[in-house]
Design goal:
Elements: E1 5-10, H1 17-29, E2 35-39, H2 45-55, H3 64-88, E3 92-96, H4 99-109, H5 115-124, E4 131-136, H6 139-146, H7 159-175, E5 180-184, H8 189-208
Parallel strand pairs: 1-3, 1-4, 2-3, 4-5
Length: 214
């Protein structure tokens, strides 16, 4: 069993995960904890190269199964090289997306079904976040926040694809009610932050309380 804490943030594109990850870092660092932040796909030199391939708008012909396998490969490298060692060292690891994203985007969005979960069991060696925060916002509202000129290959997909991804996320959340906490993302970033702080207090407050003076 790892000594650290593993938290993932999920949500439609434009949900505001990056902003909230910064707040979560501050929460744990104020309690004297060492925090490592990573993202998917990416987080290692190899995984970042795979990210470039996945999100490059020039690669629109990419087959759905190819997409699934590249995501899993990037994740396998990230888990082996970064996440698991950091957890073994007792660090707080916060990841911008994890396996739930692949299940939502490739499993539901690409209609690849349960094979996505099976492939990723191997990629992660069964590693699962201690807590996942799903920032719930309508996918059209989220994409509007990004701006058309900044959309990557997946973000450029049609609205019906993003709707399928969103509905997939909702099913994932319903199936994992003890691990995934759903919060309303259609509010100010401060309101979302306060909601997340309450969740962190509930999940980890007792565990971290003795370290708050460090």
């Amino acid at each position: 069993m790892s000594k650290g804490i593993f938290i993932s943030l999920e949500g439609p594109d434009g949900a505001g995960k990056t902003t909230q990850i910064g707040y979560i870092r501050e929460y744990f660092e104020a309690k004297g904890k060492e925090v490592l932040i990573t993202r998917e796909p990416g987080g290692t030199a190899i995984s970042e190269k795979l990210r470039e391939i996945l999100l490059d708008k020039a690669n629109m012909e990419m087959a759905d199964t190819t997409e699934m396998l590249i995501y899993a490969a990037a994740r396998a490298q990230l888990v082996a090289q970064v996440i698991k060692p950091a957890l073994d060292q007792g660090k707080i690891v916060i990841s911008d997306r994890f396996v739930d994203s692949s299940i939502a985007y490739q499993g539901f969005g690409r209609d690849l079904g349960d094979q996505v979960r099976i492939v990723n069991l191997s990629a992660t060696a069964g590693l699962e976040p201690d807590l996942t925060i799903f920032i719930d916002i309508d996918p059209e509202k989220g994409r509007a926040r990004i701006g058309k000129e900044s959309l990557d290959r997946l973000e450029q997909e049609k609205a019906d694809f993003h709707r399928k991804v969103y509905e997939g996320y909702k099913q994932i959340c319903e199936s994992c009610p003890t691990r995934i906490m759903v919060i309303d993302g259609d509010r100010t970033k401060e309101e979302v932050r306060d909601n997340i702080t309450d969740i962190l207090d509930t999940f980890f407050g007792g565990l971290l309380g003795s370290d708050s003076s460090k």
